[in-house]
Amino acid sequence: MKRREPAYPMLIQDVISSSKEEVLNDEGYQRTFFISATGARMYRAVLSGILMDKLDIGSDDSPIFRLRIADPTGGISFTVGRYNPDLLSRMDDLKTTYPVVVIGKVTSFVSKTGEEVITLNPEEIRHITKQERSQWNILAVRDAMSRLWMLGGRGPLPGRWMNVPRPEDPRGGEDLDEKAREMIKDTLRFLNKSFFARELDRMALGPRKPTDPHGEEVDPLEEYENMVLDMINELDRGSGTRWDDLIDYIDRNRLSRNVIEEVISNLLDKGMIYEPVLGFLKAI
Amino acid sequence: MSKAQQNAPEMEPDGALRELTKEELFEIKEEVHRISEELGIPLDEATRMVYEERGIHLPERTRVVESISELVPGMRNVSIRARIISIQKMERKSGTSYFRGFIGDSGSEIRYTAWVQFPFEPNTPVFIQNVSVREWNGKTEVVINDSSFVSPIEDMEGLLPRIEEGVPSTISELKKDSRDVDVEARIVESREVTVNSKGRQVDIVKGIIADRTGRMSFTCWGPVNLKEGGCYRIIGGYVKEFKGQMDLNLSPGSIFRPLSEDRLPSIEELMRPEDSRIINLLEGKFSGPVSLRGTVLSIRNGSGLFQRCVDCGRRLNRGTCTVHGKTKGEWDLGFKGIFDDGSATAFLKGDRMMVEALLGSDINELTEEVKESLDPEGILGRLEDELLGRPIKITADPVLDDYGITLQVSAIEMGWEMEKFEREIISLMEVIV
User: Fold this and answer.
1) Which of the four pLDDT bands, split at 50, 70 and 90, describes residue B313?
2) What is the Cα–Cα distance from A66 to A56, expressed in whole angstroms?
3) CB distance from B172 to chain A under 8 Å?
4) Beta carbons of A139 and B416 less than 8 Å apart
């Protein structure tokens, strides 16, 4: 069955740091995909940001506009010309410094300096509201994180609705890995500074070693142990607490899954909880 | 009644044979030895005499096989404990009938064909004596004939599927071709249906099960008494694709163990439109409405205001119906387009109510608008302004066919809930540490 390639919601930096892959489809035609820094195998993309430039670089015979949009991670330029008559007719409606969404095929060209530049063949450009722009950005971040989750071999995603097409290992090694993480952090800080910045800072600090009034070091994980024990007791329906219920609880209460998993591991080691059956936890 | 059954005075009223008690066997053994000594005849002859005198059928010398997995084609005169998994009565052209199905124990299951009356219910533990094992049509099966004896027993130990000892799966974990399914679910819908299967009328039960992770349709190939709304642990069955959707296939021999009502959320909660993505729908794992977040990439020409044939409801093309020719039409609204949620694309269909809700005008107002402007494309343009490239959340009934997913929209909300995405991002945070 022939299916239309979906448009991946993407961050601009993710798109422009991608690498090209040319494949022959079932009918023998060449199709170009781009593997992004977070592993998206793109044919189309949805980008959302601020329209920075709209330059008329054509002539009466051959009208061409060069547009540039930017999001919290970077900017990308592309052109609209006579091959996009529908978009061309709407160029007057587009205003710079206002948010837009662009949907198009990802493509590339070789610049005068011999560098391969990633760009878009736009199929749709529309002004959207600031809120809608943020919604596109947050979906792009979540999908990028889902891809990194899958690439990291962490098992099933926490929810099926986070599912994304199978990612591919990006080509570029650790540099690209770092770039992917940084652009996600940049976007999260832009989207909800007070909420995500706090979480990012907490994670950046790592496990703290606060000092108690008597001068003895206290493992911060111990602070959570009573809380986690209460949680396990609360969710226990007789045969133990289901691991899935615990994850739901953690997600609902915006708790850090990493920290709690570590606490559970400690509690198991200490013998304060046990697993009556695989997938269940019970407090002693 | 078979010859063997006629010779079996120990037959119970339901046609099954009862086992001799230990005391009876001991008594018979004593008597056999006594007669053998008194008459100076071999033990075999004495045994035959005692059994005949008592009117008890002389058991054949059979070998008791411990587990079904040990049965191999070519075996004869074997006996085995098993649980009847399924029973199907087969009619032959000659008018006679026979039975076939599966028997199993905790480790495996095997086909059987019974050429004699087989008055048992699925899930009955039985001791089957003096059967042979053959290969038929490439499959190994146990043959129960008129020299075999099938007697119900009390002890189910070792006869239940071993998977029951494990942790059940969730519906979201089930995949196409999953076997030995073990799942805890609420019966959302259950209805008896008669279907024609390979030229025979078969009574089956169809319905929908749901748990916290998803929903799935099921088909039970035989009568089963399931309480709609009840929670069950369902053990035994396999997942098959039917009309593009995953379907849990069960038999009356599958285990339906009732659970407490509060084991799973209510039906209302479980049947709320399920958050999903098109990539999941393409796997066919849905049964009911879904919520999808994405955007509309294009709206097809012809969307907006159009006329339908008053006789058959078909869309008119320049006042002409493909069936009724030039005819009178009535105005209607609708749209078709391509929906993309970043994981895959689907066809989108919206009816008059959807268009009215999106444009904030009813059909009369929109008809007047078109008549005044003489621009039927005007409505299409307004739909494009409302939908193209905008983040929207739709509730839709998906249909999967050879062309992909079609979504029949029942509700459209503009925008997505940021808080939901924030929560999801927190749960994925470890990828950027």
Assistant:
1) confident
2) 6
3) yes
4) yes
Is A162 within 8 Å of chain B by CB? yes
Q: How confident is the model at residue B1 (pLDDT cuts 50, 70, 90)?
A: very low
Would you call B404 an interface residue with chain A, using a CB distance cutoff of 8 Å?
yes
The confidence score (pLDDT) of residue B135 equals 85
C-alpha separations of A242 from A158, A236, A275, B162, B254 in Å: 15, 8, 10, 21, 25
Helices (H), B131-246: none
Which residue's structure tokens are 């198009």? A104
Q: What is the reported pTM? A: 0.61
Top-confidence range, A19-28, A136-145, A183-192, B396-405: A136-145
Q: Do residue B280 and residue A161 have CB atoms under 8 angstroms apart?
A: yes
Res. A224 pLDDT band, cuts 50 70 90:
low
Taking only residues 109 to 168 of chain B, the set having a beta carbon closer than 8 angstroms to any beta carbon of chain A reads 166-167
CA distance B375 to B382: 12
Chain A residues in contact with B172 (beta carbon < 8 A)? 160
- In this predicted structure, which of A131-145, A208-222, A244-258, B44-58 has the lowest mean pLDDT? A208-222
Chain B positions touching A141 (Cβ under 8 A) are: 421, 425
Q: Does B328 touch chain A (CB under 8 A)?
A: no
| Interchain CB contact of B66 with A (< 8 Å) | no
Give every CB contact of residue B224 below 8 A, 6+ residues apart in sequence. B205, B250, B252, B254, B256
Chain B CB contacts of A199 under 8 Å are 426, 429
The two three-digit tokens of residue B31, written as one number:
């008597």
B270 min Cα distance to partner chain A (Å): 15
Of B277, B402, B428, the CB nearest to A145: B428
- Angle, in degrees to the nearest 10, between helices B352-359 and B377-387: 70
Give me chain B's average pLDDT, please. 83
Taking the C-alpha atoms of residue B277 and residue B407, their distance in angstroms, rounded to an integer, is: 12
Query: Has the ipTM of the complex gone over 0.85?
Result: no
Token output for B223: 């009568």
B4 pLDDT exceeds 50? no
